[in-house]
Amino acid sequence: MTTRASGAAPVRLTRQGPVATLTLTPPKGALGPDFWPAVPAALAGLGDARVLIVRGEHLFSVGLDVKATAPQLAPLIGSEAGFLNAVQAMHGAIEALAALPVPVIAAVHGWCIGAGLELISACDLRLCSADARFSLPEVKLGITADLGGLQRLPRLIGLGRAAHLALTAEPIDAPTAERWGLVTEVLDTPAALFARADALAGQLAALPAAALEGTKRSLHDPAPHHEAMLGAVRWNARHMSVQALAAALKK
């Protein structure tokens, strides 16, 4: 099958059949000011892709490029409106990823720090290689993580473990991340990780798209239990495929 590519550094979007891969390519894995608008711009090129894999090039991410970003943010300290406006591009990138109707798989190797960890918390599935390390070090810099990680991580790994990451700034290794539920699989090597991510993406891409989207919507529905459950019923009423149901019953 052919691979189509679009976009440019600091991200690269490639396509292999129904599976797209967004590769983070900033120098040394540091997410600078040019990274954030590049993400939604790349995602706009997904087209009819059924699954997205998010990965790094030489490692996943060392987090925010503080040296490049600080000059933009420092003059705005004390101005809530100005600071919020400056951070909107960062929020927009991660929220665009979270809002995708297709499953998003994070494949993490090497360091996944700060903003990188907040980014993968917006993905649906997270895999890593044995060399992966995860850290939320913002408190050591005198700041509070503000890109959605503190809101998403408690739901993923529990409030206590999220608090441990955020308040101590201590890194965790791949086995700990799996034990905590941050990732669901640990592969021996980055090569094995990427092969597994490709295989899993292919498996998902073969499933009915409407069923995947409806499941994803229900998993993230913020409505109270009963309303969210009815939302899933309504989705099925609109999108259930009789053909797919009949085929499944024959298996």
Automatic annotation (TrEMBL):
Keywords: Lyase
Keyword Lyase: yes
Domain of life where this protein originates: Bacteria
Its EC number(s): 4.2.1.17
Keyword Signal tagged: no
A GO term for molecular function: enoyl-CoA hydratase activity
One matching Pfam family: ECH_1
InterPro entries cross-referenced by the UniProt entry: ClpP/crotonase-like_dom_sf (IPR029045), Ech1-like (IPR045002), Enoyl-CoA_hyd/isom_CS (IPR018376), Enoyl-CoA_hydra/iso (IPR001753)
Family label: Belongs to the enoyl-CoA hydratase/isomerase family.
Name this protein carries in UniProt: Enoyl-CoA hydratase
Organism: Deinococcus enclensis
